Fold this sequence. Notes:
Elements: H1 5-16, E1 39-45, H2 51-56, H3 58-64, H4 69-78, H5 94-101, E2 108-113, H6 120-125, E3 133-138, H7 143-155, E4 162-168, E5 171-177, E6 183-189, E7 192-196, H8 199-209, H9 222-227, E8 236-241, H10 260-266, E9 272-282, E10 285-294, E11 324-329, H11 332-346, H12 352-366, H13 370-375, E12 377-385, E13 396-401, H14 404-415, E14 419-425, E15 428-434, E16 439-440, E17 443-444, E18 449-454, E19 458-462, H15 465-472, H16 480-484, H17 488-494, E20 503-508, H18 514-530, H19 547-551, H20 555-560, E21 563-571, E22 574-581
Antiparallel strand pairs: 1-2, 1-8, 2-3, 3-7, 4-5, 5-6, 6-7, 8-9, 9-10, 10-22, 11-12, 11-20, 12-13, 13-19, 14-15, 15-18, 16-17, 18-19, 20-21, 21-22
Helix pairs in contact: 4-5, 10-11
Amino acid sequence: MKATRVQIFVFLILVFTLVSSDRAWAQVPLEPAQMPARTLFYVIWRGTPAGDARKSNSLLALWDDPDLAPMRAAALQSMQSSSAKDPSKPQLSREEIEQTSSLLENSFVLGYLRKPETKLAAAKSADHPWNGMFFVYDRTGKELLLAKTILRFRSQEKEPPQVSIITVAGAPALRLARKNNDVTYWTERGKYAVGSADLTVFEEILARLDAKPSGNSLAQVASYQEAEPLLHGGVLEFFLRIPQLKDFAPDAPANSPFKIDPMLNALKLDAIHSLSGHLVLEGAKARVQGAILGDVAPGTLFDLWSNGQQAPTSLPFVSPDVVSYSETQFNFSAFYDLLKRAIRVAVPQQQQGVVEMMEGLAATRIGMPVPDALALFSGEFASIQNNPAMDPLKAVYYVGIRNKPDTLKLLRTIFSDRLGSERNEGDTTFVKVSLGGGQSSTGIAQWNFYHLAVTPAFLVASSRSETLREFLARRSPADAAAQAALPATFVSARAQFPASVTGLAFMNLQKIDYQALKMRWIEQAKKASSAAPTRTGAAQPPPGEAEWLLNVDPQVFVRHLHFLAGASWKDSKGIHFDEWLE
Length: 582
């Protein structure tokens, strides 16, 4: 359910690459109370925080640090890459890109409206499928830069659009039509710039800005009211109504026996009401809080997540020298039941035998009924990294199990000719799995081994045998004292989350060896470059995106970043997640 903490960190970096000045927050063009009730989703960016908030926040201070300039420039320059642009025309310079990015110092709203219910069926068969996207931007102080930017990007398109002037709601607007039948409408309404891909949506949003709404607002919708406590405050907020996603499900061909709608109904998609949350700055922290809300009654998609644990079984392996730890828990049996139920209703009655046959074939392949195989796993997964250089070869992956003999039997059946040696040491069985070849009647040809260690309660995997042995040594009584001494920052972070969690994560950013990480990334970039031949067969030069690695000072990260922590949990309202960076 939740993204990895590295993904969250990257997301936060990308958000703040778009802002680079000290100014007061701008007024939001459209609050949820002004949006139409049929708003499917929206994202609100409330503008750059005030100067003091920016200086005290670790992530913003990192972005403003002069030593990060090479990375800033590279990130901004990479954003202009697009297949729709004409490569023969000059690309924007880094200075132009930074200037353009300052547009996002102001607030904006990006959203999507569903087509009215009476027209949904017609929309699926129309020559111009419904596109309810809209965009409203506060252009205060950015009028000239906005106009210049629009003209610049329009001129870079391979085939510039055909532009005409139309009248909408008594005022002039631009209609931009492209050869692929895409049409965009654009106008300026007071201090706001407004764009949309559909004329009726365009008219409705303009009416809302003019305080002439027709119909109810999103604030009167039950799913929004349920999510509203998660949407107040912060620099960014987002809201998505889940049940209406079935509108985007493709229609099966007329002659296809497989039906999408019955399958979605069997999954009880309506039980999930919304995905919502916000990004807030709390002093030095940048924090993302959100939830998937709905009816958590048995038989719904919420069954995919377990009820959680106070102390995950992988937690004892977290030691004072841990660099990162990430753990999550799922219910595999519930997943299989939901999947089987959905497939059964999607397939015609006369073809139900095919489903039974496929299940039987799977059982034959793995040597036991599928439900029995899934029941062997507790549903807990974890990744643990103690290497300061974040070397993936030193990472260990943890999987909780319930029955060691049957788990070994399953592994032997699945991997078959790819299994290498198998050796018992005490209650642990060490197994090698070949990723590059297998055994045959003519002999053994195996290489690129991955290593597994199977114990009575879990199995762990790593690229290196010595990494596994070092990891397992932490279970020994001699290491019990160190094992019990969790990092203080981890203990402090854990105390801020509920007692029972379905996922935990922690990354000690101060323990990362950024210089070693930088050198490893540079080496990987060189290998990727030399392995990618050009049309003439020659190796390509080092990619421009990697240039910043050569110039950035790794100490800039040490100065500003301390740790990343997060958790997810399940309660009577849904699945919640909380991620923060300091």
